[in-house]
Specification:
By secondary structure, the protein is mainly alpha-helical. The protein contains ten helices and two strands, in the order H-H-H-H-H-H-H-H-E-E-H-H.
Length: about 220
C-alpha cells in the first residue's frame, strides 16, 4: 500500500511538472494573439510569425507527452476524463491541428485559403486553445461529470466501470466559473510570455522590428 501511494504521488508530480512546462511553452500561442492587435503591418506579422514558427512544435510535443504521462500513470482517470470529455479535448486538438497547418501553408505560393485566413487560424489557436486548455486542466480540480463504480467489472451484463453523466461530453466544463477563470488566467499568462519572447527574439535592426518590440512592451503593461 505504501508503494502504491508513493507511485501515485510520484506520477502526480510528473504529470504536474509536464502540465507546468506546457503552460510555460504556451508563449507560442500567446505570441499568436498579438498578430492583429500588436502587429500593425504585414511586415511585422511576418517577423512575429517567423520568430514563433521555430518553436511551435515544442508546445504540441509537450501536450502529447502530458497526455501520455496521464495515460501511463492513471489509466482509469485518463480513459474516463479524456474519453468522456470528448468534445472539449477534440476542440483543443482541432485548434492545434489548425496551428500546424497554418505554419506549414501560410507562406506557400498560391495557397488555397490566403495568408490572412491562416493568420486568423493562428489567432484562434492562441486565444481559444489556451482558454480551453485551462478549462480542461481546471476539471482536474473541480471534477468531471462522470460516474465510476469498480464493482461493475464483476457484472457480466455491464462491465463498464465509468461513464459520462450527460450528453455534453466535456463542454459543460466551460460553464463552471472556476474552470473558465483558470482558462482566462492561462490565456493571460501565455500572452505575457508571448510578448516577452517577441521582445527578446525580434530583430530590432529593422524599423518594423523596432516598432513591434515597442508595441509588445506596451502590451506587457
Amino acid at each position: 500500500m505504501e508503494t502504491l501511494q508513493f507511485l501515485q504521488l510520484y506520477w502526480w508530480a510528473v504529470v504536474s511538472l509536464l502540465g507546468a512546462l506546457l503552460v510555460f511553452l504556451l508563449f507560442v500561442q500567446g505570441g499568436q494573439t498579438l498578430i492583429f492587435s500588436t502587429a500593425s503591418s504585414d511586415e511585422q506579422r511576418n517577423l512575429l510569425i517567423g520568430a514563433l514558427g521555430h518553436k511551435w512544435e515544442l508546445t504540441f510535443t509537450t501536450l502529447v507527452t502530458f497526455g501520455g504521462a496521464a495515460f501511463a500513470s492513471f489509466p482509469l482517470f485518463y480513459s474516463t476524463s479524456f474519453g468522456g470529455a470528448y468534445w472539449l479535448w477534440m476542440s483543443i486538438l482541432f485548434l492545434f491541428v489548425l496551428q500546424a497547418v497554418s505554419y506549414e501553408f501560410r507562406n506557400k505560393a498560391a495557397n488555397l485559403l490566403g495568408t490572412r485566413t491562416y493568420d486568423i487560424f493562428l489567432f484562434l489557436n492562441g486565444v481559444l486553445g489556451t482558454i480551453l486548455l485551462g478549462v480542461a486542466v481546471g476539471t482536474l480540480y473541480s471534477g468531471g461529470a462522470y460516474y465510476m463504480d469498480k464493482l461493475n467489472i464483476t457484472d457480466i451484463q455491464n462491465t463498464t466501470i465509468s461513464h459520462w453523466a450527460n450528453g455534453w461530453m466535456g463542454l459543460e466544463a466551460i460553464a463552471e466559473p472556476f474552470n473558465l477563470l483558470l482558462g482566462i488566467v492561462v490565456f493571460l499568462a501565455a500572452r505575457t510570455l508571448g510578448s516577452l519572447f517577441a521582445i527578446n527574439e525580434l530583430d530590432t535592426a529593422s524599423q518594423a522590428g523596432k516598432e513591434l518590440s515597442a508595441r509588445c512592451r506596451v502590451q506587457l503593461k
